[in-house]
Amino acid sequence: MVLSRLLDYFSKRTLLTHSTTLLYDRVLLSMIIAVTLTGFVMVVSASITANSDPFYYAKRDLAYLCISILCAIVVLQIPMAKWQQFSPVILIFSIIMLAMVLLIGKTINGATRWIGAGVINIQPAELAKLTLFIYLASYLVRKVDEVRNNIWGFCKPMGVMLILAILLLLQPDFGTVIVLFVTTLGLLFLAGAKLWQFLAIISMGGLAVIVLIITEEYRIKRVISFMDPWKDPFGSGYQLAQSLIAFGRGGIFGEGLGNSIQKQQFLPEAHTDFIFAIIAEELGYVGVVILLLMIFFIAFRAMLIGYKALKLKHRFSGFLACAIGIWFSFQTLVNVGAASGILPTKGLTFPLLSYGGSSMIVVFMAVAILLRIDFETRLTMIQAHIWSKK
């Protein structure tokens, strides 16, 4: 109820202050640029001791950033109707890519999640997130009444997610499965599915998570180390213990940009999954809060864009924008929770911030889709305003 009222309030303000010369969300774009630049600076800082070439990861991250911007520009030109039309094809392509990983994938640190493509590694799991949400938004346009009134209509999208989940668990990539599961449930909730259906699916999902944890030794170790990392600070709890030390050193205002000790070979994956710990150490509590507020703003703005699109009967665009907002906020929550010891360690990047080519490209594509949805929504409002004056 509170979220709905907030969205309605900000939606009315946007409608009232709408300018016929403004066809994109400048505030959202500015916030995305600010977080991206912050991410680049922090990747440079966190990775400077991770390789014999101090700027090895910085140069690669800059290359990924340029590719991501080019992809975003292309995506920005594609009408939302095209995404809706080809959503099944896009999903099938994503499933094929996930299957290819199991056949010809590249194994790194015990996980087979990448397809080697010359100097870069493609991670299809990142693309699977966006393609599933595009398909779900298209499905809800066609079957929203069935989802609200029929258990079978609710189970169909969960079945599609289950197919992706099986392929991801074989890699294994448990973190991405959790993101897909939670975002799918959130989107179905927004579409109006019944509460008892959620309780049933959440109960089954919780049971499945417990089974998946107890059947893999490395997952059991992660849970144990998460509960008490200091019990084995040089073994299973090492990464989390080092991350917590980084948080402790940061204090209120941090040690200063570039002054992290933990990034000097103490904290593994300092420039990827645990970049948030380095941010906490160098920028402190104040920097962390500002950064999280910016991410919250981007996620909230995505929900607001989706809400406005739904009010204008752009249902596909509305559902997809809301899915992107849920995805960004939940993945951020998991990454921050893992780095701070609130949640078990998961190999999930921080959107727009962490180092990682596939993740950055897909996130930029999602951001471009958000801007396109906002553009089409504003264009519709302008046309309606012009017609009302005739």
What labels would you give this structure?
390 residues; mainly alpha; 3 strands
What does this structure look like?
45% of the residues are buried. It is globular and about 65 Å long. It folds into two domains: 38-77 and 229-379, no CATH class; 83-194. The protein is mainly α and 390 residues long. The longest helix is centred in the C-terminal third of the chain and has 37 residues, at 275-311. Strands 1-2-3 form a three-stranded antiparallel beta sheet, with helices on one face. Helices cover 73% and strands 3% of the residues.
What structural category do the secondary elements indicate? Answer: mainly alpha
In whole angstroms, the N-to-C terminal distance is: 38 Å
The largest sheet has its strands arranged as 1-2-3
* Largest pleated sheet: 3 strands, antiparallel
* Unreliable sequence segments: 15-20
Percentage of residues assigned to helices: over 70%
Number of self-contained structural domains: 2
- Mean pLDDT across every amino acid position: 85
> What is the H/E string?
HHHHHEEEHHHHHHHHH
Shape: globular
Topology of helices and strands:
Elements: H1 2-16, H2 26-46, H3 56-76, H4 80-85, H5 87-104, E1 106-108, E2 111-117, E3 120-122, H6 124-149, H7 151-169, H8 174-191, H9 195-214, H10 217-227, H11 238-250, H12 275-311, H13 315-340, H14 357-389
Antiparallel strand pairs: 1-2, 2-3
Helix pairs in contact: 1-12, 2-12, 3-14, 5-6, 5-7, 6-7, 6-8, 6-13, 6-14, 7-8, 8-13, 11-12, 12-13, 12-14, 13-14
Briefly say what this structure is:
The protein has helices at 2-16, 26-46, 56-76, 80-85, 87-104, 124-149, 151-169, 174-191, 195-214, 217-227, 238-250, 275-311, 315-340, 357-389, and strands at residues 106-108, 111-117, 120-122. It is mainly alpha-helical and 390 residues long. It folds into two domains: 38-77 and 229-379, no CATH class; 83-194.
